[in-house]
Amino acid sequence: xxxxxxxxxxxxxxxxxxxxxxxxxxxxxxxxxxxxxxxxxxxxxxxxxxxxxxxxxxxxxxxxxxxxxxxxxxxxxxxxxxxxxxxxxxxxxxxxxxxxxxxxxxxxxxxxxxxxxxxxxxxxxxxxxxxxxxxxxxxxxxxx
Length: 144
Description:
2 domains, two-stranded antiparallel sheet, mainly alpha
């Protein structure tokens, strides 16, 4: 019988390196997803520009990829349900970028409160459709 012994620290280091490369691909895919569809999510460009590579950590049996992006990413990803007013300052910033008068902030906020906003998934399509196959390739390359 042949016995192969792996140094777990080396295995973790190789896995982390592979995951860091995967994180770069993930960011590129998520940014591409932001620009897809009839209504691309690029009003200010802030989400696209601030979407950063993930910090990869390995804690026990868990591998964590934490992507850096503005807090409002969840409302882009999932939409905003009706019922609550969005922050007026955010609406004013958006109006300014669009070249629209600031006075429209209140009516726009009221409309969002009444109707919500549509979702623009940019994380889920990558996680659900691509990440697993990219992970397999990255790990295979790391352990050649």
